Amino acid sequence: MPPRALALDRTKTSYVCQSCISNLQALHPNPQPWLTRHASNLARRPPPRLQPAVRNTRGAQDPLSNKKLQQTLAQLQGGRPNPEASSRPEEKPNQDITINYFNQDINGRRHQLRNDEEFSAISGGLDTDVESAISRLEAQMVNTVEMLKRMEKGGMRDKAEKLRGRFKRSLRLQYKGKIGPEDEEYGLLRIPGFSGPKQRTIASLNKFLSRESVVKDGIPTHKDLVECWKFYSAARKTLSSAWGNMPREVWDFLWMILSWEGVENPNRMRHIYVLTKDMSAAGLVLRRSQQLLAIEAMFIEGWQKEAIESWKKAVVTLGSNPDTFRSYWELGVRMCSLHGDTDRAQKAADTILKSVGQSDPRILIPIIRASSVKEATLEQAWETYRNMRDLLGEAMTIEDYDEVIGSFLGGNCVEHALQAFVDMMFSGAINVRGKTRLPIAVSNQFFVGKWLKRLIGAGDLDGAYKVVVYLQEKGIAASPIQLNGLIGAWIRADSAEGLEKAEDLAWDMIRSRLAHVDMRQRAGLMERPATLFDPLGLTARDKSNEGKPEFRCATKATAETFSLLAENYCSRGLHDRLQKLWKAFRHSEIGTTSFLLNQVLRSYTQNGQPGEAVALYQSMTQDHNVRPDAHTFIALFNTLSVNRLIQREVESSERDIIEGRHYFKDMVKSKWVFDSPEDFIYLPRTILFTMLKARDYSGMIIAARTMKVLFGFAPPESLLIELAAGTATLRVRTKQNVTRVMEGSRVIEGLIRQAREELFREGYDVNNLTVEQKAAELHEVLEKLILIKAKAQHLRPEVMRPALVEAAEHMGVHDIVFGGDVRQISEHRKVVRPPMVPEE
């Protein structure tokens, strides 16, 4: 029996021999929950003072520095163990002495540690599950080495070398860990000292840190950025109880991810600010580059004065260091400029410009932007711009001019912005500042159009509007094309403020147009009224703006101006405004376009007034000779009840058949052609679905045959599947819709297979069909599908012919479908290209 263990209390002992401990570990490989919680609680306390009863001759074993593990790694690398490690005399503990360890808490009480696991948890900071994982890894490595040796002895040396290389790479990935964006290596990332159910947030963060896919190839993905902040922010409260447990390597890794600069990380500065506070609370000293970023984050998060004070204090450590010199002073220029301290910003910029090899005159742009917003410093902004221009010389780019022009426009200094643009266009040869009349080279719509186009393209819409107002005061009115471009850009921005500005400018142009028309009419009558005729009340101005300078646009509206407003009102469902716009258009003496007519038709239908839409169509086409297009007939077919109502009466369905055939007749006889591929696909689709829902099967067959001749249309398989399923789109992923689509697909596949078999029996090569043969096959499938829908697939052709003839006569295409009249086909063809199968 081993000697009695030394202990403070000689009357009691907790001695358990090593063989019993080994047996217990074999029976219970996983630590008991109470033991894990106990170790976790100890880990959260201050570092303990270990007092062994006798001198420790073994020492705390670090699993990663175990001699056996080193030998195994050396064998995997095909070499020998570390000679230094093998030459050192191995310290063997005295087998006749048992060592007991004790722990003293902060209150001075001592208690004996139960086993090696508890000793490792306190002395090394490793959790039990970590030690178990390392032990299992060591056993797996030993087994792998033995397997490779057996393979080499068995004559499989090449394969063994290949497997050894793969295993070495896997070890390198697991132990060397992550690779940062600058090829820095991060080891096995883990936050020790936290375990138990109350530390689930730490476990989640550790799981994230150990993930191999994080920061792959040194570039964080959007998922990495989101999940890093998610897990870290959730664990912050628990970590704050023991910041000391966070290894510096983990802090740096978190910093590397959260400070990643890119559009995928919009909250970058907020995260850096929080991380900086936590690192300061943990007592960490930030690196120089981290200090600069921390100051910038503090400034952006609203602590401007504090950030500038921190920047001033770092002048010795950061402002004089060659690695951070330029970044430090540039940061000062930006912060002081935004804070309004342009004098200090100028001093910081001078420090950079006077340095050797560090100067870039573009650092003056923030000062120009800050100085141009105040009238008192406007001339300072102009002098700074001229100074930058002189320093850059020929190196000044168009983008530099854009920055300067945008700065002056943002400060409402349009004259200075105009001079900068003139400098860019004429290399400073023309001076326009202070001039009442602008030179001819500047005062023309061509020059103004180039500037407005550039401003609109850059997204500076407010600046473009300021230019319009300023130049009109100088006697230069912008062209309608330029203002329509500005209106369209405001509408596309899809903001409430932008829509309001677009509407105001468009109606200003409309008022100018109506005033011009009224003046022209009265001039024709040799009258000169005191006031302009205003039947719609459109020229009346808002009385709330009396006494304020008001901009009256001198540019007259065009059809495009009305079309832009009409499309916007229709998409927003503003039917009343659209009616007002339509009345103004009728008085503007602009030829009615089909586009504006289509928007009004759509608006009437959406507003539940299909009768007014049809009446307007008839009036415009018959009385005003407006030529419709494909969109006009799409709007007409959408006025039918089958496309508007869910529940319909029998009379409505019968009326839909009659009106649908009438619209088809008008569509064929009208003089128009397709102007876009979308119309070429969408109009036939609308017609076929409308007749299918109205159950006008004979009209549907006639429409398909007519469109084949006049449109060159062949239904794509996707449309056939939708018609078979009875659903207007394949993108709706409801359970019922998916079932219907699957059934429709089976029907179409069967019909195509039958058509191919018939072609094969007729001697055709079904694997190399021509375009015309494919189109004919698809039309045949469509007609068979229509007969299936009508439950008339078994009827003979002579039985169906009377109904088809009647439908063709109603639709005005009898001579085209049954007679093959070449003259009518040529006269009513709607495409200028040969028939083709539309792409899916």
From TrEMBL:
Q: Where is the composition biased (Polar residues)?
A: 63-75
Please state the span of the N-terminal signal peptide per the UniProt entry. none
Q: Where is this region: Disordered?
A: 41-96
Keywords, A to Z, come to:
Repeat
Give the residues annotated as coiled coil.
Answer: none
The text of the family note is: Belongs to the CCM1 family.
Subunit field text? Binds to mitochondrial small subunit 15S rRNA.
Q: Which PANTHER family does its entry note?
A: OS03G0856100 PROTEIN, OS12G0638900 PROTEIN
- Sum up the protein's function in the record's words: Regulates mitochondrial small subunit maturation by controlling 15S rRNA 5'-end processing. Localizes to the 5' precursor of the 15S rRNA in a position that is subsequently occupied by mS47 in the mature yeast mtSSU. Uses structure and sequence-specific RNA recognition, binding to a single-stranded region of the precursor and specifically recognizing bases -6 to -1. The exchange of Ccm1 for mS47 is coupled to the irreversible removal of precursor rRNA that is accompanied by conformational changes of the mitoribosomal proteins uS5m and mS26.
Name of the protein this chain belongs to: Pentatricopeptide repeat-containing protein
The source organism is Lasiosphaeris hirsuta
